[in-house]
Prior knowledge:
Distance between the termini: 42 Å
Largest sheet: 5 strands, antiparallel
CATH architecture: 7 Propeller
CATH topology: Methylamine Dehydrogenase, Chain H
CATH superfamily: YVTN repeat-like/Quinoprotein amine dehydrogenase
Helix content: under 10%
CATH class: Mainly Beta
Strand content: over 45%
Number of helices: 0
Structural class: mainly beta
Strand order of the largest sheet: 1-6-5-4-3
Number of strands: 33
Radius of gyration: 20 Å
Amino acid sequence: MLRLTPILGVAVSVLSVSLVSAADWTRFRGPNGTGVAAADVPPQAVAKNLLWKVVIPGTGHSSPIIVGHKVFLQSATSDGAKRTLICLNTETGQIEWTRDVVGQTAHTHKKNSLASSTPASDGQNVYVLFWDGAAVTLHAFTIDGKPVWAASLGSYQSQHGVGASPVVVGDKVIVNFDQDGAAEAMAFDAKTGAKAWTVERKPSRANPATPMIRTLPGGKQEVVFVNTSGLTGYDPDTGKVNWEWDWAPNKLRTVASPIQLKDSILVVAGDGGGSRAAAVVIPGASPKLLWAKRKDVPYVPTPLVKGDHIYMVLDTGFISCLDAKSGEILWSERVFTKAVTSSPILVGDTVLAIAEDGKVVTFKTDPELFEKVSERSLGEAVFASPAAGDGKVFVRGVEHLFCFGKK
């Protein structure tokens, strides 16, 4: 049951944002999942100047997204009875509105939560996956919180809980509905919520990696999924399979999103036991493996790419720079003493990385050496990935949302 929960004393605007701008951060990991901020985010926003911090009701590891002057994220009550989409003002941190659905408690991995799915937006609506503890439903709300539609994806089974996040491609909302023993690529009409298409995928253990969008020669787009079995490129309008790459003999989970290099795609995988894998694939009718690694790569944090170099923040606390063409490690430094779950982001030529204990480190994108710029502690644990938009950087901790920017 949907509950509309207005915040007293806050006027809810009747106007909606019509289009996303280059300064928005409208999905997990921002523009096409790259983790790269728009040019309007100043260096002071990279964890230097704290503008405000506010308590976030409930708990969750959903990362923030930014549309205009609004920031959105998902939360859950500690008893599991509710899931909530929260909208805050980017300038003040004031909660503008919340929207609730009924839930129940359920088992999750110790590093997961009942509200880990990051919303997505096309500038008009916000799309969010709510897992009620048994089934998953995709909801659409206007930017100002009006319910538009809800579409059930069905029951969900995973020993780790839900972690997938939706993406918007044209007029479709696309979801990687990958669980233990079953997997589907699904697309919904963004205006109506009607199921546009669904394609069964080869299942294994749940793989919550968020899809990426690839622009083909001629300008047409395709959506790229990854799981234990490999990579697949789909036509976002029809679900037609354009190409597939078999990742045999990989048996590991894919949590991090696929990342586009120049003409290739980087994917990483791992498990809780410490096994790791990475592959760079040239997609097409006959996909080609460019290079692969079986160690010294991340499992959960998604890598960053700048030019011909890859910057990886490993779960173990190491940070490394790799040559994108060969996979050669150019440098590697132990930066964090605690584990890392959050994915790094890139602001200009500075990377922001956060450990689970709330330690924030920024460093330059220099392929020759590790050059630390700053270090600070947020004073609380962080599992969500930061977001950059509206000229600011937002970090979600287990209790607060932090906003950094130019004073």
